[in-house]
Amino acid sequence: MTRAMTWAGQVLLYGLFALVIGVFSTWPSYRPLAPGQAQVKVSFIHHGQRVAECRPHTAEELAKLAPNMRTPMKCQRERAPVAIEVVLDGATVYRHEAVPSGLSRDGPSSVYHRLQVPAGQHRIAVRLRDKAGADFNHTREATVTLKPAQVLVIDFDAEKGGITLS
Do 16 and 128 meet the contact criterion of CB atoms below 8 Å apart? Predict the structure, then answer.
């Protein structure tokens, strides 16, 4: 009798476990976006340009360096912060300045931001600055048609010509 009760208890517990898994696999329902909404993601990692221009080493500087450290040019490591601005249908919806990573501020700047927008046709303008100064040196304007639950990714890839929308 004890063995029968052990089997019955195991069947009951396994059945209860399966029921809990079944309930939570369909409820509550997950919707990443509200109905009729699309998403714009700004996501990139980019090195800003150097803050100071490289210059040739002087003869005195070269003499102080070990022979294996003698390079013709001296370059500071610090890089400029990367600034981005996203304008959607004439209104600025995102503006950010990402500082370079690293102790010497010589690493890449990274940006990740999500925006929920209504599905439909939008005029989008993206401006990016990766050098010291006041003007944006990379721009991209386009008219996009976003379907409900569509995700538009704004990226920066210098090899592909700068700002990309995909």
Answer: no
The CATH architecture to which 32-50+80-165 belongs is Sandwich (2.60)
Does position 1 have pLDDT exceeding 70, yes or no? no
Question: In angstroms, rounded to a whole number, what is the distance separating the alpha carbons of residues 29 and 24?
Answer: 9
In what side-by-side order are the strands of the sheet with 120-129?
91-98, 82-88, 120-129, 138-146
Would you list the domain boundaries of the chain? 1-30, 32-50+80-165
- Contacts with 34 (C-beta within 8 Å, 6 or more apart), sequence order: 116
Q: Provide mean pLDDT across the span 100-118.
A: 95
The predicted-structure confidence for 55-97, as pLDDT tens digits, reads as follows 998 889 888 889 898 888 888 889 999 999 999 999 999 999 9
Given a contact cutoff of 8 angstroms between Cβ atoms, the answer to whether 144 and 121 are in contact is: yes
